[in-house]
Amino acid sequence: MPRPARVPDQVLDLLRQGTRHAWTMEQIAAGLQQAGRQADFSSVYRAVERLLRDHCLERVALGDGTTQYELAGQHHDHVRCVRCQALAALDCLVHEPDLRAAERASGWSILAHRVVLDGLCPACRQHGGED
């Protein structure tokens, strides 16, 4: 009988399915449970922390106290629906020349940036108009 997949592997499989761009810790645990995987919340937490250390996942801090996790990859920015909280990736909006200009103007050395734009996703726009 094959050995069950380790929790970190199960988390990666779930996120690679692409049903959403980023997941909260609670959504990961619920997604594993819905897929019939047996992993308690502490095991999911440890798996996510390990995947972060191994650079397989990245944190997406949304500026509202919510942290989501996404597969590691090329840098990109995000757009978030203010109504349903859906999150989608955008091509990077701040490019190297802009960062260097910001450094010259501020005197700071910029190491990274994160952009999260707020708006209404297509489904929320269609079903309720704009606020």
Which whole number gives the mean pLDDT? 91
CATH domain fold name of the largest domain: Arc Repressor Mutant, subunit A
Strand elements, count: 5
- Helical region count? 5
Low-confidence stretches: none
Shape: globular
* Biggest sheet, spatial arrangement of strands: 4-3-5
Instruction: Name the CATH class of the largest domain.
Output: Mainly Alpha
Helix content: 25-40%
Beta-strand residue fraction: 15-25%
Biggest beta sheet summary: 3 strands, mixed
- What is the string of SSEs from the N terminus onward? HHHEEEEHEH
CATH homology superfamily of the largest domain: Winged helix-like DNA-binding domain superfamily/Winged helix DNA-binding domain
The CATH architecture of the largest domain comes to Orthogonal Bundle
Class based on secondary structure composition and strand pairing:
alpha+beta
For the terminal residues, how far apart are their CA atoms? 55 Å
Q: Count up the domains.
A: 2
The value of Rg in angstroms is 18 Å
Keywords:
Arc Repressor Mutant, subunit A, Dna Ligase, domain 1, 2 domains, 5 helices
